[in-house]
Amino acid sequence: MSQIFVVGVDGSEGSARAARFAAERAKLMPADLKVLYVIDWSPYKIYTHQEAETRGADRKREMAEVENRVLQPLLVELSRDGLKIDGEVRYGHPSRLLIDYAKEVGAQEIYVGRQGRSPLNLIFGSTTSHLVQICPIPVMVVP
Amino acid sequence: MLRRPFALFAIVLASLWILPAQAQEAEGSIDAAINAIIGPVANTVAGIIFFSVPVAGVDLPLIVAWLGIAATFFTVYFGFINLRSFGHAFQLLRGVYTNPRSAGEISHFQALATALSGTVGLGNIAGVAVAISLGGPGATVWMIVMGLLGMSSKFVECTLGVKYRIENEDGSVSGGAMRYLSRNFERRGLPGLGKFLAAFFALMIIGAAIGGGNMFQVNQAYQQVLAVTGEQSSFFADKAWLFGIIVATLVGIVTIGGVKRIASVTDKLVPGMAILYLLGGLTVLAIHFDRIPGAVVEIISGAFSPEGVAGGFIGALIQGIRRATFSNEAGIGTAAIAHSAVKTDEPITEGIVALHEPFIDTVVICSMTALVIVVSGAYQNAGDISGVQLTSEAFGSALPWFPFVLAVAVVLFAFSTILAYSYYIVLAGNYLFGRTPRVSLIMQIIFILFTILGATMSLGAVVDFSDAMLFACSIPNIIGLYWFASEVKADYKSYMRRLKAGEFPRFK
User: Fold this and answer.
1) Do the strands A31-40 and B58-61 form a parallel or antiparallel pair, or are they unpaired?
2) pLDDT at residue B243 above 70?
3) Per the CB < 8 Å rule, is A51 touching B101?
4) What three-state secondary structure class fits A108?
5) Would the pLDDT of B132 be above 70?
6) Nearest chain B Cα to A93, which residue?
7) Mean pLDDT over residues B87-107, rounded?
8) Which residues of B touch A63 (CB under 8 A)?
9) Mean pLDDT (whole number) for B142-154
10) What are the chain B neighbours of A56 within 8 Å (beta carbons)?
11) Pairing outcome for strands A139-142 and A109-113
12) For residue A21, which of A38, A11, A33, A12 has the smallest C-alpha distance?
């Protein structure tokens, strides 16, 4: 059975670098690569009446946008050289969702970028640092 | 497309700022003039809705009995669902039965929070004070009882709200009393009755949005801001219209100008403010710890044999029911709109979650206000002060700085409730006159004009008009609830059976 690697992306340059690095590693192993785009979301975030009414529509739009703008181009780029790769967009708490997803697909390793999209976490992305602290499988942080 | 409404809005606003200023120079007090014109109209409307019959020598408004009987009936009919399913609601709110793959859609918690932003408002702070000044401390008991019974009405209407919502192709949803009245009666072969009741409801909710969801809120917010900025010496003294225009401008910026950010921020601050308010209340109770037993006795004895209350026992009961319903809107049908945005395949689950709404609103927040007012003794020598001023005085007697915090809370509560109703009025307008941008714009302009009027009017006239319009919504709504009760009961039984059989996977 071949290995499975998971890479978490968020549309940032750093996460794209992590995905490319993970693809190189996966080819060497060889391993299958699964790309997870996480849209940060909490079930406790409060919405106004209008936002609540259109939430279902907004979700569809957001997912399609991310799929077309980030995920598909990345999958096309990395699937050259015969790498087995697929990807998904999900909503949730980024680090916890990455761990749950890795468990779900039976991954051996998680790859993430060092910095996320948020400009506030300049030194070390908060998602990444949280992931490193709680992840039960090896995490590769790509600078 | 976007530019034209905005330009129109700017013109309306500009004229609002200029006209009153000129008018004021001409006749002294614009506030008094507005009162003189609108007051009689408001009183006439209130007179019709509050048609009363004498019971034990007291005038009992039929609409109050209608609300109280419905809440009691649903509680008994559903076997005290308000108590029995209360715990299950916590599981649903925590997402125990929510598939993580549906993340990104409105959760049970979010639907409840959105609904609460519309219901938790000045009714909880000022309305309670009105109940106590008119019905004595005993009105508190009836308010709490009505809050508990109202949970059952809320369960029925929110279940129906989700069950008969329309899921549009783009994924957005529209639900609420208008939908379940029209769609369910149509399904039962009575499309005419459904259309009539839904249109009646839509018409009444326009009035409710203008009254309780708007004028009452801005009126009481103004009173509190006036109180903390120095009463007669305040900049806002005799300038209620100016306060009204400021609030109306902000509302207009959100609803017509489309600056949704203000609404998001307000709604995020409201839960924090509610917690701050409760903590303030607890602090007052802690300071007056020794007076609590006396206050409890006063409240309970006042519920059954109130002294000096107009109408005695029935008088206290009427005030309790009126203020509880005004605050939690159970049986009114409004909250079903917010609840129907939830992502679920089981409408019953949202009905169960909605049980928490009257509980938090009335049994928790209103009771806190009532206890603070009674414990502080502020109501005894209140003289002619009422509404939010009485609540503020009660808090201020123990925590002199709290009225300032209260002013901030009151403005935020009022603003979030006003925004919720500015949404309801557009939905109602769209239902009656068509889903076009022009209709929406006209409704929004009417709405903000009444924001200004609300600030200037006297509390009594505003309360009567607000109650009348809000309670009138319960006429078509509760007819529907009775009609559909057996259907909801069958759904509830089916849901509980499958829940016990473990048919719903647990995710936590």
Assistant:
1) unpaired
2) yes
3) no
4) coil
5) yes
6) B103
7) 92
8) 104
9) 96
10) 105-106, 167, 170-173, 343
11) parallel
12) A33
- Which amino acid is it at B157? E
Q: Which residue of B has its CA nearest to A57?
A: B171
Q: CB-based contact (8 Å) between B106 and chain A?
A: yes
Which residues in B lie closer than 8 A to residue A62 (C-beta atoms)?
104
Type of residue at B314: I
pLDDT digits (tens, 9 = 90+) for B301-351: 999 887 767 778 888 999 999 999 999 999 999 989 999 999 999 999 999
Residues of B in contact with A55 (CB under 8 A): 104-106, 172, 341
Q: What is the pLDDT of residues A19-48, one digit of tens each?
A: 999 999 999 888 999 999 999 898 888 898
Instruction: Compute the nearest-CA separation of A22 from chain B (Å).
Output: 25
Which residue from B169, B53, B63, B184 is spatially nearest to A54, judged by alpha carbons? B169
Tokens for B284, please give them: 């007052």
At residue A34, the pLDDT reads 95
**Rounded Cα distance, A127 and A99, in Å:** 11
Output the CATH code of domain B44-95+104-499. Answer: 1.20.1740.10
* Residue B26 pLDDT greater than 50, yes or no: no
**Mean pLDDT across B30-39:** 74
Eight-state DSSP code of residue B106: P
Q: What CA–CA distance (Å, rounded) separates B499 from B501?
A: 5
Say what the pTM is: 0.89
Could you tell me which residue, B209 or B32, shows the higher pLDDT? B209
CB A48 to CB B114 under 8 A?
A: yes
Residue spans per domain, chain A: 3-116
Q: What is the pLDDT of residues B411-457, one digit of tens each?
A: 999 999 999 999 999 999 999 998 899 999 999 999 999 999 888 88
Chain B CB within 8 Å of residue A57 CB = yes
Domain-by-domain residue ranges, chain B?
Answer: 44-95+104-499
Note whether B341 contacts A53, CB cutoff 8 Å: yes
Q: Does A48 touch chain B (CB under 8 A)?
A: yes
Q: What digits encode the pLDDT tens for the residues A120-131? A: 544 456 788 888
A136 inside 8 A of chain B by CB: no
For chain A positions 62-101, those within 8 Å of chain B (CB to CB) are 62-63, 90-92, 100
Q: Residues B169-191: pLDDT tens digits?
A: 888 888 899 999 999 999 999 99
CB B257 within 8 A of CB B6: yes
**What mean pLDDT do residues B250-260 have?**
88
Is domain A3-116 in CATH 3.30.1660.10, yes or no? no
DSSP secondary structure code for residue A113 in this structure: E
Task: Answer whether B271 touches A (CB < 8 Å).
Answer: yes
Is A42 touching B (CB cutoff 8 A)?
Answer: no
Q: Which residue of A has its CA nearest to B170?
A: A57
Q: Which helix (H) or strand (E) is B138 found in, with range?
A: none
Helical axes B240-255 vs B216-228, angle rounded to 10°? 130
Residues B448-458 as b or e (16 or more Cβ within 10 Å = b)? bbbbbbbbbbe
